[in-house]
Design a protein that fits this description.
- The protein has 3 helices and no strands.
- Helices cover 90% and strands 0% of the residues.
- The two termini are 16 Å apart.
- With 90 residues, the chain is mostly helical.
Length: 90
């Protein structure tokens, strides 16, 4: 029972990783836009570095989505959990 509870918590924590990726992408784009506004002559290099960084951040988002699908598949069905709880209460 504790295993399934921890598994459900892990699935919920993966959502935090996706939220963090969104925040990180916003910060990266803000920093790149700010840098390009200050030094327009190297905007191409800044943009290239920004895209590489965004690709790494996005890969973390895709991996967390993949892990959430895998972990959700390991969770038991709702009926089984309710039956287990009913037996524990009796």
């Amino acid at each position: 029972m504790i295993y399934f509870a921890l598994l459900a918590i892990a699935v919920a924590l993966i959502a935090v990783a996706a939220f963090g990726c969104g925040i990180a992408q916003g910060i990266a784009v803000y920093g790149a836009a700010n840098s390009m506004a200050r030094q327009p002559e190297i905007a191409g290099k800044i943009q290239l570095v920004m895209f590489v960084g965004l690709a790494f951040i996005e890969s973390l988002t895709i991996y967390s989505l993949m892990m959430s699908f895998i972990l959700v598949g390991k969770l038991p069905k709702t009926e089984a959990v309710l039956e287990l709880i009913q037996h524990a209460v009796k």
